[in-house]
Structures are given as C-alpha cells and as structure tokens.
Design brief:
mainly alpha; two-stranded parallel sheet; about 220 residues; two-stranded antiparallel sheet
C-alpha cells in the first residue's frame, strides 16, 4: 500500500456546539474491575501488600532499581547494541503480557502528566518517562495532551444502579441506533444534520423515559 494511502489518526479537541458549550460523554465510575476477598482468608491484607509493592516498585521505578528498565529482561526490555530498550520492534520475543494478579500497576495521574510532558517537547528524565518516550508513539503523547487540555469538559456518568425497566426493554435498540447513526455520519453516508433527527428519535423511543428513571434513581440514593 502506498504511504499516501495509509490512514492517519490524530486526536483533536472536542469542538464547541452552536451555543458555545463543550462536553463529551465519559464512562461510568473509574472502577473497571473488582477483587473479592474470602471472608475466611487467613491473611486478607496480603492483596494490599502485593499491590502496594507493585505501585512502589513498578509503577514509577527508581533509577538503578531492579525494575528501572521494565519488569523482565528479554521480555518487555532488553539490552540491544549495548543500550537498554523497551522498543518492541527491536526485542525478538517482546512480551509485556505478564500474569499480574491485579493487572500491571499504573498511576493514571503520572501516565497522563508524562504524555503531556513529552508532547511539550520536554526531555524524559525518570526511568518511567524514558519508557513512555520509547514505548508510546508521539501520536499518543499529543492525544494525552489534548485530553488533559479539556479535562473539565468530560461529563461523568454517575449512574451505577441496576438497569431501569425501560433500559431492559429499549437500551440495546437505542445503543444500536446510536452506533449506526454515528458511523454513517463519520463515513459520510449521512449528513451531520442527521444527528438532530437521531436525538429526536432517541428521546421518543425510550431515551426520555430512561433519563427520568436514572434521575429518579440518583435522587433516591442522594437522599440517603
């Protein structure tokens, strides 16, 4: 495929609407996994000791430490031409899929701030920053900067309850309609104005009722 035919992906700031307001839908709460500890466990505190170790030693390793360049030599880092590297294109059997009990340790705040630092052209200094500079592409750096530049426009979804009655009967159809409409608009198969008709249909086909049910749920839990 000629280089000119390659698809290039770039992050852009969320645009303002006709009334000048900016907003973007965000996911539910930041919790995407849970760990259950048996009430009869002899040492339930072990999981906290384990994860604290990961955070203290792997999430932001110190220079000269065991994990300065990564988790395991020959896997997620190696010495190539006399220099340590995390470049998966250079490491023959590269792998960073290690079976961590809780997943790899990640400090979200540090991750995003490092992307912004790199996007600003600042020199990576810590082992973690150097890993990010080599492992993440410049497109990732700038995407992180775009996200952080509009951190206040994210609209958090605080609904964490069970599916409401109308969600049970209508949500899948509403989601399907949303994805189909958005894809068609993105690919030019529908005009941008089709979004307004989608919104009207979404609201009349159960969206307004779901919104009311979710708001009622929020009021009920907020009053406790």
């Amino acid at each position: 495929m000629p280089a000119s035919d390659l698809i290039k992906i770039k992050a852009y700031p969320v645009p303002a609407g006709p009334d000048g307001k900016i907003g973007t839908k965000w996911q539910n709460s930041g919790v995407n996994a849970s760990i259950m500890i048996n009430k009869d466990a002899k040492h339930p505190e072990a999981i906290f000791l384990y994860y604290n170790y990961l955070l203290d030693n792997l999430a932001n390793p110190a220079a000269g430490s065991e994990y300065e360049y990564g988790f395991a030599k020959g896997y997620d880092w190696d010495i190539i031409d006399g220099q340590p590297t995390s470049d998966k294109e250079k490491i023959k059997d590269f792998s960073n899929e290690f079976p961590f009990l809780t997943g790899p340790a990640l400090i979200q705040d540090l991750y995003m701030k490092t992307l912004v630092k790199l996007a600003n052209g600042e020199k990576p200094e810590t082992p973690y920053e150097k890993q990010m500079a080599e492992f993440r592409k410049p497109e990732n750096w700038y995407a992180g900067k775009v996200v952080m530049s509009q951190i206040d426009v994210r609209k958090q979804n605080y609904f964490t309850g069970a599916a409401t009655p109308t969600m049970v009967s209508k949500w899948n159809l509403l989601r399907q309609s949303e994805m189909e409409t958005f894809n068609k608009i993105i690919y030019g198969n529908l005009p941008i104005d089709a979004f307004d008709q989608f919104v009207a249909n979404w609201k009349s086909n159960g969206g307004d009722q779901i919104t009311q049910e979710v708001n009622d749920w929020f009021k009920s839990v907020s009053a406790k």
